[in-house]
Amino acid sequence: MQIAIDAMGGDFAPGNVIEGALAAARSAGIGLTFVGPEERIRRELDRHPPLEDGAIQIVEAPETIDMAEAPAAALRRKRHSSIRVAAELVARGEAIALFSAGNTGATVMAAHSTFGLLPGIDRPALATTIPTLTHAAVLLDSGANVECRPVHLVQFAAMGSIHARIELGISSPRVALLSNGEEESKGNDLTREAYRLLKQSPLNFIGNLEARDVYTGRADVIVCDGFTGNIALKISEGMVEAAQELLREAMSHTFSTRFGYFLSRRAFRYFRRRVDYAEYGGAPLLGVAGACIVGHGRSSVKAVRNAVNLASRFARQGTLQRIEHELAPQTTAAGRGPVEGSSAVS
Amino acid sequence: MQIAIDAMGGDFAPGNVIEGALAAARSAGIGLTFVGPEERIRRELDRHPPLEDGAIQIVEAPETIDMAEAPAAALRRKRHSSIRVAAELVARGEAIALFSAGNTGATVMAAHSTFGLLPGIDRPALATTIPTLTHAAVLLDSGANVECRPVHLVQFAAMGSIHARIELGISSPRVALLSNGEEESKGNDLTREAYRLLKQSPLNFIGNLEARDVYTGRADVIVCDGFTGNIALKISEGMVEAAQELLREAMSHTFSTRFGYFLSRRAFRYFRRRVDYAEYGGAPLLGVAGACIVGHGRSSVKAVRNAVNLASRFARQGTLQRIEHELAPQTTAAGRGPVEGSSAVS
Fold it and tell me: I need a labelling partner for A80 at 20 to 30 A (CA). Which of A30, B129, B190, B332 fits?
């Protein structure tokens, strides 16, 4: 089955996107449908060894939505953008999943409007896998919705639990609300009401999580609105980069520290691998009725490869079907078609 | 002049608090008024060499507000808590500044209700100094207000600019809004409206700052609501701790990396010093009509020493008088008394 690739999405598109997707296809037998200006894609493909016949398809999409464009206006104006055309392939069943490292807002809106939402879900959420000292955890929403209501956070918690069970193999994921303190009284209006609702839910809710405990591994599913989630992840990324820079600087001071750095470079590589977003490659958009993986705007070749692998795995594991099965309102679930057949929202 | 010290505030009080404050008093000629149970304070003081006559006073306060207590209820119930009694010393002019490493919410409320707010300010903000790759910057609000309106963020920006000018010596501080993207269209309802207001202000407003740029030094004053600010700082703290743990682990793998770690330990010390919150010690509460420095709940001896030094410097530098002078509504400013004389709010 094919993965629809927005060939023009991201700061280093189409170069990194095509090279990374080809690497995934080669190692895991994934079919690729590149979406974008055909000429440009062919030129890029010519720089790499060919795959077996039929493994690669190209679907023409002349327009590109830039990283800085306002998503809603851009999607309205550009009816033939690569991200929209790629999403439509999934909606028509011609691909099992969509990957884009482009404009996150535009990708979320294209997937939302083309796939529609799963029954029982009011907002989709980006679920980012993060490293902790003990194991991998999921943080959501990492950027799909800047404004959320308490019931949305509860839906994120439920979807995140199912995703953590399937993708991370955690049988009863510990769910926590990201907050400014552990006590029930801490938080803003949004999280305090979500706390009340989560306490009554059947989820394994362990309460509030202070941000300093995100990386200790105390929780498996960390829930917040998309504005807070974006800040939390991006500041961590910036912190790691600044720390590496400071350490490099510190270690160049004397001969013995330079020699020490030389000896410990293997440890540094190990460290970077543990905290590198590229290991996970992309974040699934949970709650829409089709598989969509959103990549980092600055995705490296390796990040794209891992994200395309994730897209294939995510679609095959049936996480969305599981979410539909477990979360759809009981009275209406029976009458609905399969996830892939859900109709468009707008 | 005396600094009023909440001797019972913090996870390691009164031990670290008293030892750190004594170190500051010894090196900088600061007078200390310890507030708390007199017996307990005397026992702790007996463990250290005495200071010169009159440098230390003790004011009895039999009650303590714990870290996990709900601030408003605790302050109502405990009329003689160490934090409230210490704040009252400043309001009466018997001390020039207040320091507490205790319950942040209770400290903010005690200072707010005892000192009152400066004219033109609707909410106080905690201004935390953070390290960046190029210089120190200020992030506010780091935790005084979990719910903010756009006009509050504008007031934070103005107060933060004055503080950065005086404390960090930056003549025209670059002010930025912490957001989920650089473009004007990014952000939530709160930050988008604050953006519009800041553009019209006389401040040196440079727009939105993505969280990944907080530590690159692109902005001098980083403005956000207190919920977001708390998450941003606490997750950074957790990230540094996790990174240190991972590096230590990685470096113990082989003899050469262990040897490398041994040689580079000086670099590690330098690194830790650069990112250590204890270097700054505490955050001034801007906007209240009296000097108040809030310390980290887990303050070390060194953090307390630096925070008490900051308290003395902050009061002498006249930052609050400057804020009052520059931000008070022109029509009413003339009729108001000095900062120290402002009346209580509640």
Answer: A30
